[in-house]
Amino acid sequence: MKYIIISILIISLLFSCAPQELPVPKQDQGELLTSEVFLGENYDYQIYYSLRENKVIQKNLKTSWDIGFETSPDGYQVILNSSKLMFAYHTGKNDFQSVSDTLGFENGKLSDVSSGNLDSTAIGDWRNEQPVYILDRGATIAGRLGFVKLQILHVDDQKYEVRFKILPHGEESTIVVPKDNQYNFSYLSFEKGGQIPIVQPPKTEWDLCFTQYTVQMAIPYLVTGVLTNSYNTEAQKDSITEFALIDREFIEHTPLSHANDVIGYGWKHYELNADNYLVNPLINYLIKTQDGNYFKLHFIDYYNNEGVKGNPKWEFDRL
Predict the structure, then answer these.
(1) Residues 144-167 pLDDT 10s
(2) Which of 166, 193, 220 is the last residue of a domain?
(3) Is the pTM of the predicted complex or chain greater than 0.85?
(4) From the CA atom positions of the chain, what is the Rg in Å?
(5) What is the pLDDT of residues 56-93, one digit of tens each?
(6) Are residues 311 and 211 in the same domain?
(7) Does position 7 have pLDDT exceeding 50, yes or no?
(8) Pair 237, 246: CB distance under 8 Å
(9) 186 near 67, Cβ under 8 Å?
(10) Range of 36's domain?
(11) How far apart are CA 186 and CA 178, in angstroms?
(12) Distance between CA atoms of 137 and 81, rounded to whole angstroms?
């Protein structure tokens, strides 16, 4: 009960209201631009953004999916929707019918790492044992979304086959999730017997995802920030060099990381005495996109003109 209360308080703190997003002009090389996105009331949306095109490519409700499936021909990893504070528990059983409750969940639950490392997912390598998992579907501002039991039955170069049941009294469903290597993941929602939404744009069309996601601290909790595209996108943080002095040569000689959470949420912090978020514009981010373009970026605000939080604003330049 203590954990639930803490989680609800944290979630409530992180939600906010926001207006609709505005179009921005396409960027020419060497031109410093300012842009922003609006995550919607209560951080309801995930927004996929292209630095090269300087525009939002796609926007979806964060509640539109529960789990994602790696789409490469030999891929088998399954991820949780960390924007909802989801957890998975390996029951140690492979008889689907023998699992009917959440016994053991609290002591054995895991969440995915925010780096996007597929070797460190909560579900892990399921292929040999095909175990039954209990998934906590996470939370929204309205409350917890409940539990589902899941068993991944098969994977090949074209599809997955999965079985699930919403606990305690949902109908058992079996569904085929196709692979499409144009995307990083295929997605499944447990709603209405299983739905397959398009969540991310094609992997070659976007660079940054503005979203809530789960981080591992003393307890896992939700933050709001930026995750990079896991497809051939690299980034690095620099809090030493003046923004104006960063050029292409500087980035080319800086080791970059494939971790999704390099940009993350640390460019802002909550000031308790002021009761607001403060952005640190001295933290710079160096980005190499999948198409070989280099960008520098730093954040300058987290509020819109009406003083509503949850509206990241940044300056960036293609080098």
Answers:
(1) 999 999 999 999 999 999 999 999
(2) 193
(3) yes
(4) 20
(5) 999 999 999 999 999 999 999 999 999 999 999 999 99
(6) yes
(7) no
(8) no
(9) no
(10) 2-62+202-318
(11) 7
(12) 8
